[in-house]
Amino acid sequence: MSVSRDEIPRLALVGCGAIAESFYLPALQNDRALLSRMVLVDSSLDRARALGARFSIGNCQARHEAVLGAVDGAIIATPHHLHHDIASDFLNAGSHVLCEKPLTETAEEARDLVKIAATRNMTLAVNNTRRLLPASTMVRELLLEQKIGRVERIIIHEGSEFNWPTASGFYFDRKISSRGVLLDIGAHTLDLLCWWLGGKPQLVEASLDACGGIEASVELTLQYGNTRCEVRLSRLQKLANKFRVDGERGFILGDAYDPGGIRIGLDGATEIEKRVRLKADDLVPFAEKLVENFLASMRGETRPLVAGADVLDSLSLIDEAYAKAKRFPMPWYEPKEVQLHAS
Amino acid sequence: MRPDTSVLITGAGGFIGGWIAESYHLNGMPNVRAGIRRWSSAARIARYPITIVPCDVMNREQLDGAVSGTDVVVHCSVGSRDVTVEGTRNLLDACLRHGVKRVVNLSTMDIYGGAEGSVTEATPFRYTGSEYGDSKIDAEKVCQEYIARGLPVVTLRPTIVYGPYNKLWIAKFAERLRSGRWGLFSEWGDGTCNPVYVMDLVRAITLAIESDSAPGEAFNVNGGEIVSWNEYFRRLNAALGLPPLRIISSSGSRRMARVTDPLRNIARAALRGYKNQLTWAYQHSAPLKRLMRAGETMLKNTPSSMELEHFGTQVVVSIEKAERLLGYHPTVGLDEGLRMSARWLMHEVPDFPPRTNLNN
């Protein structure tokens, strides 16, 4: 069900937390016509109204049910565990959906959304921003062109002290979800890995540090054909925040927080840097691109940059890792006063 | 302490607060509440099924919710002067209103303000201009006010608290040792380090909760092994499996600090006045980025004059009072404590020491 090019679409932005404030609304702020028809939805109506006042959006609601059937599209930026139910409500009500990553908490929920979207002929797009970053696309292109030959190993280490300004604390509420850094950061890194490799690797080993709560550190070993992948994620410590792809004829090295460039080392040649100049220091230009693509997808002019079906592999991999993960040894809890086996 | 004692820990998102919450939970105490100011600090304790409660000591409403129904409060939160002093007042006020049976206030040896020689609890407070030490003195004075009003507060003054998850004495110094710029600073490093393993401190806290003679008192908490700073660096270095440290002569150590002190001041002033421009340059110019990174690494891994003064100070913090009144006896030796800390660090930050070629 497409939206006509002649009409200004009516969008709902559901969830008025940090991502709405720093990513979506700055990207939309110059489109006055679109903003004038937009609805902000947040369970904290005060929060929605505060953002509405800043971005000149008068229509604010506390519940998404209030706008079902009344909008052409919905951008869902709520806590993860709400994505599936809210997205399915909008799709079933005939609205296109652009959802924050992770699309859902489980692959089963994601498959359900993909099915609903296909049945109802609606767009289901996901904000897996990393796929839009020049550094990530450069890696994909180099691998497709086989510039470094057969890929033998991919290593990704990403971690820093958790500092997302979450107001609700949903990340750490076991009643809401028991999934931690593997879902939150893994939705980016494992998605990139699947995208670069062209398919889902096999899980060889997974270990994490949850002791009846939510994991903050995880180690994964994966295998895709002859390619070994090692992934390390942490919410506790600053890790190298780098990735490296080793091929039989060279390597690609990147920085998780440098979206504009990578380094390439080919055997017998000087290491070179490949870089594009970014329009801004933040991710807002990528939000503009994402929303523009979503609007074009709603009109039936293009496909989503990242569609719901595109992230099924990484979400399946995350499910498998949670199912098979062991707790890694933590020998620093050795004194008899603090022994993990007591938990 | 009875297993069903309900304990609130303020500042449970921090290094010491996190260890208290974890160890009490792991010892089968179901009524542990981990108080945090920001959710972003909850990642470590959330790995356990511990109840996490919002507990900003500047927010009286939150404090009421967190303190209500609590038998014991262990106060670890710290921040700006206001948070440390007025936050302590707010907390103790709530404790008094809710009939809390015991409060343990975590202070610091810094309240002695760089005293030398043997330091006991009778050594007077000394203001030095340091926000941390000075505000801890004032927080202790607030505790005295509430003790006078009948609240059973015990103050502990730990020394150099180290262990797994410690950023300052373990992670930061490990980075310095790994850099190859650090060393043994001759007599500048011959002052006394008073290291106490974090679990020994947790044990002292438990004794302060249990002891009938503790309320109204303050106790120093030190480890069992007093070594020089040079010895601390040498043993941490060995625990991390790094090559032996070089000996930097006394004059070389001093010169190193004197040369870098002005650079530190310039860097601080530049960051204060031109942060946006510097960030832009860092993000847009590869040579500038490399230069800034190299400068930052050099400054981080070289001691400042102030640090050398600290590493050269001879001070031994006595625990005689804690031994006598609380029955506190540290049990974790420095080598054992550093071994566990190094195992933590090498596992949690796997590039240190490198296990892969990721940093080529």
Strand order of the largest sheet of chain B: 3-2-1-4-5-7-12
Radius of gyration of chain B: 21 Å
The average pLDDT score of chain B comes to: 92
What percent of residues of chain B are in strands? Answer: 5-15%
CATH domain class of the largest domain in chain B: Alpha Beta
Largest interface: A-B, 55 and 49 residues
Write down the domain tally of chain A: 2
Cα-based radius of gyration of chain A, to the nearest Å: 21 Å
Helix content of chain B: 40-55%
Provide the CATH superfamily of the largest domain in chain B: NAD(P)-binding Rossmann-like Domain
CATH architecture of the largest domain in chain A: 2-Layer Sandwich
Return the CATH topology of the largest domain in chain A: Dihydrodipicolinate Reductase, domain 2
Secondary-structure map with pairings?
The complex is a heterodimer of chains A (343) and B (360).
Chain A: E1 11-14, H1 18-28, H2 32-36, E2 39-41, H3 45-54, E3 59-61, E4 73-76, H4 83-92, E5 96-100, H5 107-120, E6 124-127, H6 134-144, E7 151-159, H7 181-184, H8 186-197, E8 202-208, E9 217-224, E10 227-234, E11 242-247, E12 250-255, E13 261-266, E14 272-275, H9 284-298, H10 312-324, E15 326-327
Parallel strand pairs in A: 1-2, 1-4, 2-3, 4-5, 5-6, 7-10, 8-15
Antiparallel strand pairs in A: 7-11, 8-9, 9-10, 11-12, 12-13, 13-14
Helix pairs in contact in A: 1-9, 4-5, 5-10, 6-8, 8-10
Chain B: E1 7-10, H1 15-26, E2 32-36, E3 51-54, H2 60-67, E4 72-75, H3 81-97, E5 102-106, E6 117-119, H4 131-148, E7 153-158, E8 160-162, H5 167-179, E9 183-184, E10 192-193, E11 195-197, H6 198-210, E12 218-221, E13 227-228, H7 229-239, E14 246-247, H8 250-284, H9 286-300, H10 305-311, E15 315-317, H11 320-326, H12 334-348
Parallel strand pairs in B: 1-2, 1-4, 2-3, 4-5, 5-7, 6-15, 7-12, 8-11, 9-14
Antiparallel strand pairs in B: 10-13
Helix pairs in contact in B: 1-6, 2-3, 3-4, 7-12, 8-9
